[in-house]
Amino acid sequence: MALTSTAVDLATVLAGVALPNPVLTASGCAAAGRELAPYLDPAELGAVVTKSVMLRARSGRATPRMAETPSGMLNSIGLQGPGIEAFLADDLPWLAARGARAVVSIAGGSVAEFAELAGRLAGAPGLALIEANISCPNVASRGQVFACDPAAAADVVAAVTAAADVPVLAKLSPDVTDIVSIARACVAAGAAGLSMVNTLLGMVIDTDSLRPVLAGITGGLSGPAIRPVAVRCVWQVHQALPEVPILGMGGIRSGRDALQFLLAGASAVSVGTAVFHDPSAPARVLRELRADLARLGFTRVSGVVGLAHRDGGR
Amino acid sequence: MALTSTAVDLATVLAGVALPNPVLTASGCAAAGRELAPYLDPAELGAVVTKSVMLRARSGRATPRMAETPSGMLNSIGLQGPGIEAFLADDLPWLAARGARAVVSIAGGSVAEFAELAGRLAGAPGLALIEANISCPNVASRGQVFACDPAAAADVVAAVTAAADVPVLAKLSPDVTDIVSIARACVAAGAAGLSMVNTLLGMVIDTDSLRPVLAGITGGLSGPAIRPVAVRCVWQVHQALPEVPILGMGGIRSGRDALQFLLAGASAVSVGTAVFHDPSAPARVLRELRADLARLGFTRVSGVVGLAHRDGGR
Amino acid sequence: MTPSQVDARLVGNDPAGAYRLLTLHAPAVAGAAEPGQFVALAVGGPDSALLLRRSFALYTADPDQGLIGIVVAEHGAGTAWLVRAPVGTTLDVVGPLGRPFRLPSAPCPAVLVAGGYGSAPMFELGRRLRALGGAVHLVLGAAAAPRLFGLAEATDVADSVTVRTDDGSAGRRGLVTDGLGELIERTRARQVYACGPMAMLQAVAEVSAACGIPAQVAVEESMACGIGVCMTCVLPVVGADGRSRMVRSCAEGPVFDADRVRWKDVGTLPADVLGAEAMGWH
Amino acid sequence: MTPSQVDARLVGNDPAGAYRLLTLHAPAVAGAAEPGQFVALAVGGPDSALLLRRSFALYTADPDQGLIGIVVAEHGAGTAWLVRAPVGTTLDVVGPLGRPFRLPSAPCPAVLVAGGYGSAPMFELGRRLRALGGAVHLVLGAAAAPRLFGLAEATDVADSVTVRTDDGSAGRRGLVTDGLGELIERTRARQVYACGPMAMLQAVAEVSAACGIPAQVAVEESMACGIGVCMTCVLPVVGADGRSRMVRSCAEGPVFDADRVRWKDVGTLPADVLGAEAMGWH
Ligand SMILES: Cc1cc2nc3c(=O)[nH]c(=O)nc-3n(C[C@H](O)[C@H](O)[C@H](O)COP(=O)(O)OP(=O)(O)OC[C@H]3O[C@@H](n4cnc5c(N)ncnc54)[C@H](O)[C@@H]3O)c2cc1C
Ligand SMILES: Cc1cc2nc3c(=O)[nH]c(=O)nc-3n(C[C@H](O)[C@H](O)[C@H](O)COP(=O)(O)OP(=O)(O)OC[C@H]3O[C@@H](n4cnc5c(N)ncnc54)[C@H](O)[C@@H]3O)c2cc1C
Ligand SMILES: Cc1cc2nc3c(=O)[nH]c(=O)nc-3n(C[C@H](O)[C@H](O)[C@H](O)COP(=O)(O)O)c2cc1C
Ligand SMILES: Cc1cc2nc3c(=O)[nH]c(=O)nc-3n(C[C@H](O)[C@H](O)[C@H](O)COP(=O)(O)O)c2cc1C
Ligand code: FES
Ligand code: FES
Prior knowledge:
A: 8-stranded parallel beta sheet, 4-stranded antiparallel beta sheet, 8 helices, C: 7-stranded mixed beta sheet, binds flavin-adenine dinucleotide, binds FE2/S2 (inorganic) cluster
């Protein structure tokens, strides 16, 4: 690799889709991009990953829906959203009009729902990829999460892939004994890539009310606190399946954090909770990543993907 | 419950063993107690949980063995220790001589090793409980961790229980899809109680050397960062198995943190990584917990155990 | 009104009864702010374990000097850090956020009701209402005298000032709603504005409704992002179409029409809220 | 020598070339400290995401005034916070920790070699050696002049001072080991003391060995606890029994006999280290 700091080409290919750069938003942490417009230009990001949308409008859970934790937070939103109809009418066109690429996250309570959502998205403007959020409860198996069972995960991925006209990313949960086995199942079922990781299940108890803080009792842990777990998941899956594209996420707050995920094997990254701390975080992370790559003498993002596995280290 | 703040009786029974109070050290974070003597009196703690000991002396892994992470740290020690012989000769007697209670953590690469360790401990001075650290690799199954498989976990627990002359705690890993199933298996196999949780598997990549920071590549994540995950594990297991005593741990740094674990269902707690930040942490946590219980008007520790599950909340 | 994110210098950190008055140099925010809007501040410094921003209603916004003022009550770790921040500290500020109080199209008498630091937005609101030519009647309440903010300033912005404290340490002992109905009648107020604890807002809403005049209230819900992307800050609100929805208090609020908020259902998931039936397992 | 944990007031934070000299009021530490020992400081304040203490060699320890001094180089987040801590800050200090340099039983000439801030413990050590009646010859090295600590003070504690910098910006261009052998011969030194980067310590060890005199070195390993409970700070050291062990540099060190440290194997797990054969799957 060149040792002189030259211009860095940030173009990335994620699951067969060309992106101008490897920094995306994370589902549920950027809505559908519009609210971030005062702080960054959505079109300048690799893509905007939208909040998981379901078939019907959903109210989400009762409040409190969040609790701050050391270097992290818990959330228990319950996938509040307008439903696919309104999403296609209002949200996607807005992104398309601004020249932003959309990775649309979908969630369902059944394989059929997932499939129908993927079908509804076919031909939608600006749609670059579908991210199947399989970290949600499977009504058929009494609320067991799809992502925690290789077979259930594979069923969803197969159905979504069949119905979709763009490549599909399967979004994995870290709350499993063997994430590689889930990854294998999703890839075998047709996933073009994997998004990792979703939140860790956690809870906080209020020591004054003596009750759980969240109305939903448990919630998803995110933020820098979980970064080491997320990097480990990406590392393990890239080691087992080096050819499988990965969208890495979990506690990314700086360019160096993003670089850790690329070095572990991710082709691109999502910046999630950091947006709550700094609404311009995705744009800043991109700037910092460019500077870090230049400092290290890399001219291409592909040069660092998975590098920590090889002895390219210094 | 009394609303006036009266003297609090901190006496606790953990897995059938009476302890003067519910605050213990955590295995591997207090050695065998001696090094903490300048900062606290080991005899004033509920008990000292000693570093997992194995049959033979172990060198541990190469360095670097640690990396700091947001509100946490990774460690990859590799169970360095003198072996059971030296432990019985030097460490236990020191604790006994000071009137401190010892919870001895044991670790083995096979069921037989675990059993032999438990046997060697029979009749040892000051031995209050055995904690079986089943979060370690099973040589027989190519390094798969005992705690990640109900059957393997049960085998270890059954063998240790049979050979031990004190009650046995099984120490669970949070890195599983369904911690309740592991807990059930351990209890069915004879565990008198459960210690939860051990560290989460994580890793950090050095963005200058472009290689993993730890010589062992991955390591165990601990500290306040993981507290919400640990509280959730205790909550889930207490909900499923309300009669099973739990020693709770994971990121406890204050009396309020300890109280969260008691409210979730733990009968006692271990203070681990916080000792690195504050060597007097276990004694301080005990002081703060006493004050919190008094403030809330509780006169007995048993009054709060699992209370967050009931509508004892305010 | 579009928000921006700025590095603001803390130019003042002064005691104000039980609170601290923080003054920041943030021209972009000062130039765009209107009463009822808020700012979100990052807390704890670069190595802080406190990940989320803290929100504070704007007390003052001076476009000429580029200064904004907020009133901070010490509550937990974040505000504890903030109230101790030395003058000269650079603070990361996002704002102005949320929807402000709406001013009447024609001048009319208004009653402004505030609890504790909830009075912060009321002074600038009062000035603007009087500039429009309407009389302003201010009701300030708190647990005790030190928790009344801006008493000295009150007479400058209001034609009448009523003070209530729970312990009687200032003004009459009682709640801000004691005699509120009479005040509304006597002053022929056509509009009520309120800011303070949820319970107070609900009581004010009821009195206003009983008097048959509209009330605008600024609510305070726990917020993770403050900018409308996270969905943590919602409460059940009835829309123009009569449908109830879980609405973001940071983006659609913090100011709501009091008669639209389903006060008794805040913190619950009413079955008739849009999309509640879809919740099922989730 | 027993360590204690104290809330120490920062009474001085002064520039010292590329470093900051921090002075703390910590009587219990000052009264027990000996050269070569270190202190561990909590960093970042109450809400800090930085969990672990930072270790610093003691530069001064004045039992009469109850003051200790440390020399801090800004490295990452923790030291960045520390060098900016205002005078008056209360710092949580644990110390003195570790084993100090051992003084000779009879007076003898000694050579003290230091790299960068590694000179911190050398001044008090030099004073004590001269008090015993032995000559002290100090060799200070660094990348460049600003990274030499204590040059002005050097002549007070040493009979001769040699300075080396990589860039020649102070003293002779070169490494502290350049001409070290000759210095040892010329001064008839019977003991070498060294503190600095691992590579430098290894080179000093080799020169001393070649000259046939013992060297004591203070190593710097990454430490999680600093008090001997965590086992993160180990390095392979040969024991009196000839067996190599992974030894804690915080408890058995930081000062080691140079000929006992397995320099080439630091950062590895030599197969002949006690218990290495037991590692297997773990
Ligand atoms: C729109 C709005 C306007 C506000 N205006 C003011 C003001 O003018 N003056 C003032 O003193 N306070 C105001 N608050 C409340 C203030 O934001 C909280 O007191 C503060 O966030 C508490 O942070 P902490 O770290 O001290 O407490 P902690 O309890 O440690 O905070 C933990 C988490 O809970 C959140 N939180 C805790 N209490 C509240 C609360 N009451 N409201 C919202 N989030 C909370 C925090 O933001 C943080 O994310 C306002 C809140 C909102 C939403
Ligand atoms: C016995 C001993 C004596 C020391 N004496 C001095 C001294 O007199 N002056 C001085 O400036 N520095 C000294 N150091 C090094 C100092 O401890 C580190 O520079 C400091 O811990 C870095 O913290 P950071 O947050 O700035 O860097 P970061 O890289 O952010 O620290 C991250 C983690 O790595 C650890 N770490 C990073 N670098 C080192 C290092 N070089 N040595 C040990 N741990 C490290 C930190 O303690 C922390 O846990 C000494 C270290 C030891 C072990
Ligand atoms: C408030 C909130 C809402 C989220 N909603 C979704 C969601 O709808 N779908 C999804 O796949 N992930 C969701 N996530 C998970 C994030 O996309 C991301 O995987 C996780 O938070 C880890 O990344 P981070 O630490 O950068 O936030 C949500 C996270 C947060 C904090
Ligand atoms: C340095 C270090 C060493 C540890 N060694 C052991 C061990 O030997 N056996 C064990 O069961 N747990 C070990 N643990 C895990 C702790 O006992 C505890 O379960 C975990 O760290 C979570 O608690 P904490 O966040 O309070 O540290 C170790 C943890 C650390 C940080
Ligand atoms: S606080 Fe995030 S949407 Fe309102
Ligand atoms: S740093 Fe913990 S044992 Fe040395």
